[in-house]
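Q: Can I see a sequence and its folded structure?
A: Here is a first one.
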Amino acid sequence: MKKRKLFGVLAAISVVLISWCTYRLWPDDTAYARQVLTQIDLKRYYQISDEMGNNLFFSTISTDTLLNGMAWKVKDIHPIHKHTDGFWINQNWLYPSCRGRIVTAIADTMNLLVSAIKPAQLIVHQLKACQYELNSLKQQQHELRYYLRVHGVQDIGYDIVAKYATKIHMRRDTLEKAIALLQRFNRNGKISIHRADEYTATYKNTKGKTEKKHCSALAKDKHNSILLLETEDRKTPHGINAITIVPWKITKMLDTMAITSRFSSPCPVEFARPGSMIFVPTHMNKGRFAGIKLQNGYHDSEQIKELFHLGK
């Protein structure tokens, strides 16, 4: 009798386990996948500092290693903006384990460029460029002063030239302040560069309203192509789905489709935005999650799994 009860309990447990595993590994339909999708906004700027308390901010570096969007006050910073798709993801296939984690595809080429250049080298190049521009402005100011001195407001085009002269004067004032700051940096050997990133996830709640959550970066892959983010409260929003990576490797990437914010229905992968989810078709208009769309190409689910080990 006891054995019969034991077998009955074991059989019931087995049925529950099989049902649960089947449920967790069941392919996803479009409606479910769209509740997994989110959009990621990145705001980024860089800060150059020295031990004397001098600070200089910029948004990007041009190909000739000059600083774009240069500012010396926080309120004047013009950060770069990047927009891409992303998706909420479970860390373990066996149970809900998202905890506010998102995978997205943001190529980090600019940060690689900044990291490869010595801060002192950036200062020297920028100082030379500003001094060259300042000399050019001084020549323009000399010519504009002569024009304004020999002409009057009754002359055609005088107002336009006067406004342009004011613009040149303001630009010169800005350059002189920038040069003074760069010279202070140049006299100090200990200079460092810090990056400031702000990630925001935008998604639809259960009522269809747009909500936002701030996130921080946990890990990026070795190719600087995909990124693992985590919400500040480490919680997945109520009513939001999370994608699950199956425990086996998907080897056949045939007839793949993507779920992207660009379209309301699945589309060919080449038309999807970076960060979109890639699915392989299964049955009954469902699909199995297989990877993430990049700017060029894709990463499969096995490469995404590596992020979890890096993010621990």
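Q: Show me another, different protein.
A: A second, unrelated one:
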Amino acid sequence: MVFAALSLSSLPGPAFGQVAGEEPCDEAICVGGAAFKKMLEYYRTHAHVRLGREKRLSNGVAWRLLIDTPTGLAVPRITWMPDGLAMRKANRLFDAIQGQELFVYAGQAAYWREVYEEAAREGEKDKTGVSLMIPRDNFIGQPMVALTYATSRLVSYFDVTILATDGMSKVPQPNGRILDLEQGKVFSIESCPEKDESSVSSEDGSEVMFRLGNWLEVCDLKSVARFLALYATNLEAATKSAAFRRDPYAEYCKESLLPLGRRAWDFEVYLTTTGLAVHASNFSSHMGRNCLRHESAVIPVIIPYRDLEPFMKPGPWRDELLR
């Protein structure tokens, strides 16, 4: 069935803004004001969803996944929160986000079908005579999706996606997003302003530099050192938790983790009810990537908001998260 939302097109509130750090455009991967309408319409005309099981955050906000049946791609929706208008604003943004994901999936599917058809025409085969291209019916996997934070101002969620490749290596990639309901914008981790990407280095820690919206900046070497110390402290604390003792893969996942770095885009950040989630994705072994396919006691590492106060910029995000 096609999911019918509550008259979201007539919902009052700000227009959907661009993803932080990107210029407005009409491309599917650039979410700007014009693209919002395009992706919302794409969702309404292409999505065929089933409802996931309802869950609750610790503050009582209820949510569930809406799972597109043909593709398996899921995006959260809020089903109850005290502020009904904020819920409708969030769900309108989620509709557009899911429309964008379906649009990108359709592009991936078209690309791989074209590649396979070309390989078949040219008769590309290995030494045993088997075709080098394997037909596929799934182009973007999504082993994990969850809403992690929701208030009248801010909503956050993450997912882990796996893009189809032409080989056996399928690397899971975490993605974190924050929806600012007052601004009508979607934020994610981005590079520091005026940072020369060619000069970053793993040796001095500069490749860890990042910022998140107008709230959090880790954009100098002193800040990087303090942030990495917080990450290490909270990772070590996670190893002493009951969840760590119950998780049969936790020790392996911890030992396989490589140092954080942004050059390879190997970590994401997003909000949770207890702190900032730092979701690493770079491992010393190929098998370590399996740690991203299920819940883990050490991924993500949660850093309490109060500990991040030195990196915070004044504004409504800071006011809310330090309450």
